[in-house]
């Protein structure tokens, strides 16, 4: 059996390091013919996946997967697709983390749906991470409040804020919102 608190701490450090490597073109997606850029969650997630795989290397004892649907899963019911899972293939007891990603422009309702998804997956994963990217502290603060309104889960869901490209994400904690 692995030491999940230590493994999670190691993974989190690598995740934060990977966020710092995301360039602006993946953070703020340029659109032909438009004067401004937009946020595209899939573009950001694909680049985060790439950077995280490079950062974790081949020695990391878990597998990182993106958008694995659970519709044919024998244990997990429903058809939920977390943005990322960090797990040991085929061994439920070795699931480390589940991650949902949203841009600062995400609707509050969609963030609540993702928080509910994280809560559901906490039955099978050691920890959950909600990562918000984009410079909107009000969005991050409201997400923190939403998580904190669920006291039985608030300690198991880590909120990361990736404010800008080229800089690392930071944990957004209760102390910061006070």
Gist?
The chain is α/β, with parallel strands linked by helices.
Characterise the protein shown here.
There is one protein chain. The protein is α/β, with parallel strands linked by helices. It has helices at 4-19, 24-27, 41-56, 108-121, 137-148, 174-177, and strands at residues 63-66, 84-87, 97-103, 127-133, 157-162, 170-171. The protein has a 6-stranded mixed beta sheet, with helices on both faces. Helix 1 crosses helix 3 and helix 4 (108-121) packs across helix 5. The longest helix has 16 residues, at 4-19. The radius of gyration is 16 Å and the shape is globular.
How many helical elements? Answer: 6
Main pleated-sheet profile: 6 strands, mixed
Mean pLDDT: 88
According to CATH, what is the class?
Alpha Beta
* Number of strand segments: 6
* CATH topology name: ECO RI Endonuclease, Chain A
Name the strands of the widest sheet in spatial order: 1-2-3-4-5-6
Number of domains: 1
| Shape category | globular
Helix content: 25-40%
CA-CA gap between termini: 38 Å
Secondary-structure element order, N to C: HHHEEEHEHEEH
**What is the CATH architecture annotation?**
3-Layer(aba) Sandwich
Which structural category do the helix and sheet elements fall into?
alpha/beta
Strand content: 15-25%
Contiguous runs where pLDDT drops below 50 for at least 5 residues: none
């Amino acid at each position: 059996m692995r030491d999940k608190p230590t493994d999670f701490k190691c993974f989190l450090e690598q995740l934060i390091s990977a966020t710092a490597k995301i360039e602006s073109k993946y953070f703020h997606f340029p659109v032909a013919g438009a004067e401004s850029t937009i946020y595209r969650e899939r573009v950001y997630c694909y680049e985060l996946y790439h950077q995280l795989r490079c950062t974790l290397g081949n020695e990391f004892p878990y597998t990182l997967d993106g958008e694995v649907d659970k519709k044919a899963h024998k244990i997990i019911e429903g058809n939920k697709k977390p943005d990322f899972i960090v797990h040991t293939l085929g061994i439920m007891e070795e699931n480390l983390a589940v991650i949902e990603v949203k841009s600062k422009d995400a609707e509050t309702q969609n963030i609540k749906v993702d928080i509910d998804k994280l809560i559901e997956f906490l039955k099978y994963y050691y920890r959950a991470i909600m990562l918000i990217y984009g410079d909107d502290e009000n969005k991050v603060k409201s997400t923190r409040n939403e998580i904190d309104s669920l006291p039985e889960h608030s300690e198991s869901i880590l909120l990361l804020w990736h404010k800008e490209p080229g800089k690392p994400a930071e944990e957004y904690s209760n102390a910061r919102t006070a």
